[in-house]
Amino acid sequence: MNKTAKIGLVSISDRASAGTYQDKGIPSLKSWLEKVILSPYSIEERLIPDDKETIEKTLIELSDQKLCDLILTTGGTGPAKRDVTPDATLAVATREMPGFGEQMRAISSVFVPTAILSRQVAVLREKDEHSSLIINLPGQPKAISETLEGLPSKGVNGIFAAVPYCIELIGGPAIETDSRFVKAFRPKSAPRPQIIDSLIIEPEGKADSSIIMLHGLGADGADFAHFREELSAFGAPLANTRMVLPHAPYIPISMNNGYEMRGWFDLFSLESTEKEDAKGIQETFKLIRRLISEEESRGIPRSRIILGGFSQGCCMTLYSAVRLEEPIGGFFGLSGYLPMINKEEIEHVGEAIKSPIFIGYGKADSVVPPAFTEISIKYLNELGATNLQAHGYPGLEHSLNVDEIGDLADFLESVLRSK
Length: 419
Fold this sequence. Notes:
- By secondary structure, this protein is an alpha/beta fold.
- The protein has two domains: 5-169, MoaB/Mog-like domain (Molybdenum Cofactor Biosythetic Enzyme, Chain A, 3-Layer(aba) Sandwich); 198-417, Alpha/Beta hydrolase fold, catalytic domain (Rossmann fold), CATH 3.40.50.1820.
- The protein has helices at 14-18, 25-36, 52-65, 85-91, 98-109, 141-149, 163-169, 227-233, 278-297, 312-323, 370-383, 402-417; strands spanning 5-12, 41-48, 70-74, 95-96, 122-126, 131-137, 150-151, 156-157, 198-201, 209-214, 241-246, 250-253, 259-262, 305-310, 330-334, 357-362, 388-393.
- A seven-stranded mixed beta sheet has the order 9-11-10-14-15-16-17, with helices on both faces. It has a six-stranded mixed beta sheet with strand order 2-1-3-6-5-4, sandwiched between helices. The chain has a two-stranded antiparallel sheet with strand order 7-8.
- Helix 10 links the parallel strand 14 and strand 15 (330-334).
- The model has no long low-confidence stretch (mean pLDDT 93).
């Protein structure tokens, strides 16, 4: 369930494979997958001519040798003599999956009557040690997106919603999707993908909101096991809030001579942000997107999902407030700062910056200099934060106090009462 998915992309075109025409199929597929899939995956690409034997050999190689869990082809699915992709696909199949072809034609028929001429198929190729799902897609980028994603505004489901569960049923890894684009179908009885080891504290009743809380360097999620009760004591309306407390992985920390401890990214110095672990920060950001999407898939509206963090967790919370494409219920960052300031990785600012943001910090903090936080507050405002409140607490070091918890409780009340 936790291994990386491998996806084969095959563009089938005489002209593109000969170099006389720019292939649009694979770039379109890669762009769509990058937008929709949140879990780790790798890609194998092939650009080949409309030749039945070549297509068969390519599909067999990707399935049997490269061990692709999913293979998507584009092109060659019409009635013309050179359109042999479905024939080659059926030739290497062990079983056909007719529902995919039926749905693909149903989607296309919304736009063109010629959809009835499409011969797209989907099949399984099964071996004792490995199985692949192979799907023929149309050749045009717009049609590829519509086929995979569907037409929600017209009540038409895309085919990719059924792909992750199909992959799991044939023994492949879990594939997580961004529910804004594709809400993957899984029956209630199916095990949920494990994104990261987490402490999850459910409310007594049905959850109607979620707080994802990221701990600091060297700690773990259990540090905030009683945070809901502490906030509730100050009036925060969290009786029906699910607490998601992930444990960061153990990684070498350069500042500590490479000693491994739980951390969201590597840290080089507490005195300067000149050198930062851009790759680690971006990987954790991808993880945060998955955690948010998972809460949405469990029925929590995006407007009632709140991301918070302390110290390093605060850094990732503020980074997410800048980078997430769409708003969530709110963000709160405690005793941290915004990483990657003035770096190209943060040049893209998403709409989440307009979400409510709470920042609290100690003015006597000897771990994260207060100046780091204050610079971050100014920069967030410059980036477009229109609903940001910041509180500096005199005498507070790198920890929390009752004043900060009380102010945060008021912030959470204002956020949750308004949704």
